Amino acid sequence: MNKKIYKNEIEENSDDNENDTSTDDKLHEAELIEKLGQSVSQNAKHLIHCLNVIGQVEGHYVLSSQNKTTKYEHIIPSLVAIEQDRSIEGLIIILNTVGGDVEAGLAIAELIAGMKTPTVSLVVGGGHSIGVPLAVSAKYSFIVPSASMTIHPVRMNGTVLGVPQTLSYFDKMQDRIINFVTQNSKISEDKFRSLMMNTKELVMDVGSVVDGEEAVRIGLIDCLGGLSDAISKLYELIESTEKRYPD
């Protein structure tokens, strides 16, 4: 009799532990969505991770609390964790960004480009400025027809020394961006430079704005499509790619 009661107590404790674990998992997932804009789908054909890059990419300087930002100190460890986690089979990056810190954005783009995990990017709304390297960093990129991408030279706010070294620094930074974009997309260097240095399109600025169809036509983005197209392509990449870190 005592053994039976003891067994029932163990089963009840086990159920309580499972409920606690389930609750903890849900709270953790809710925290990820609220703080980092990230979520993991559980009941799906393949387990994929969704990563948002929205608002302004925040780098070495903290922006105003009024700005919607994506913090690179959040994104970088998340990418490392995704690359190590063998249960996550793919990564979809949703982009709606006005740009931001050039070096922080380029660092994130380089990390994504260097992942073995199958990756697909989807530009919705806008993928402006440093959002361009972020969009092309994935193994395959999509853009919705209504989205746009602004391509312009490197700019800097605040005090700038009027010396030749400053211009040289800007040139080198632009070369880094141009090399990355042309290596990770089908656009030619000459075409990208001409869009970047266009003086006839933007008011009081230099550069170009391309919509979804034009971005695909010039080879900047791989394909025109929406969310279902991006997920279908990601599933295709997952099924055709070898395991990242086999036992």
Topology:
Layout: H1 2-36, E1 38-40, E2 48-58, E3 69-71, H2 72-84, E4 90-100, H3 102-113, E5 119-127, H4 131-136, E6 140-143, E7 148-151, H5 164-183, H6 189-196, E8 208-211, H7 212-217, E9 223-224, H8 227-240
Parallel strand pairs: 2-3, 2-4, 4-5, 5-6, 6-9
Antiparallel strand pairs: 1-2, 7-8
Summary, kept brief:
The chain is an alpha/beta fold and 247 residues long. The chain has helices spanning 2-36, 72-84, 102-113, 131-136, 164-183, 189-196, 212-217, 227-240, and strands at 38-40, 48-58, 69-71, 90-100, 119-127, 140-143, 148-151, 208-211, 223-224. The mean pLDDT is 85.
How would you describe the overall organization of this protein?
It is built from eight helices and nine strands. The protein is α/β, with parallel strands linked by helices and 247 residues long. It folds into two domains: 1-36; 38-240, 2-enoyl-CoA Hydratase, Chain A, domain 1 (Alpha-Beta Complex), CATH 3.90.226.10. The strands form two sheets. Strands 1, 2, 3, 4, 5, 6 and 9 form a seven-stranded mixed sheet that branches. A two-stranded antiparallel sheet has the order 7-8. Helix 4 links the parallel strand 5 (119-127) and strand 6 (140-143). It is globular, with a radius of gyration of 22 Å.
